[in-house]
Write a structure and sequence with these properties.
Distance between the termini: 40 Å
Largest sheet: 5 strands, antiparallel
Number of strands: 8
Low-confidence stretches: none
Strand order of the largest sheet: 7-6-5-4-8
Radius of gyration: 18 Å
Length: 149
């Protein structure tokens, strides 16, 4: 299974429709699942997922990118509590509440919850209790937005 070729196909389709690929997952259990998470600045609708699914399924079959038995293609938005993995995402969501887990301590901590304050010099800036902390991008184990009501 060449996930990079699948990502390239998904990006061709999503970009042609004004969207971006956020993440791709391949899971095998009782069923085989290929999940593609897409996004665009104004958010994703059911119709967006349907359009990408229709075009991508044809492309995957035509290029025989998912060999073997039957699989399920699922197209989804990354959700309100989406993962943050790319530098541009930390900029895009500046001002939003987020959680960050670091591999290495920063100011004697490995977990931070606060408002994203962008990215500078390869470090994600997060405001925690009125103080801005700079967490090195390469040291982030996990980061995601927090749903606010």
């Amino acid at each position: 299974m060449d996930l990079e070729r699948i990502r390239e196909a998904a990006e061709r389709v999503s970009h042609s429709l004004g969207m971006e690929v956020v993440e791709i997952e391949w899971k095998v259990g009782k069923e085989r699942f290929l999940r593609v998470y897409i996004d665009k600045p104004e958010g994703i609708s059911h119709k967006d997922c349907e359009a990408v699914s229709n075009q991508l399924s044809v492309l995957l079959d035509a290029e025989d990118l998912v060999p073997g038995p039957h699989y399920i293609l699922e197209i989804s938005s990354p959700g309100l509590d989406r993962k943050l993995t790319k530098p541009a995402e930390f900029e895009r969501f500046a001002g939003r509440l987020a959680r960050i887990w670091s591999n290495n301590p920063v100011d004697n901590q490995k977990f931070f919850e606060g408002r994203l304050a962008g990215l500078a010099d390869g470090k994600v800036r997060i405001e925690v209790k009125g103080r801005v902390i700079a967490v090195p991008m390469e040291g982030i184990r996990k980061a995601n937005l927090v749903v606010e009501f």
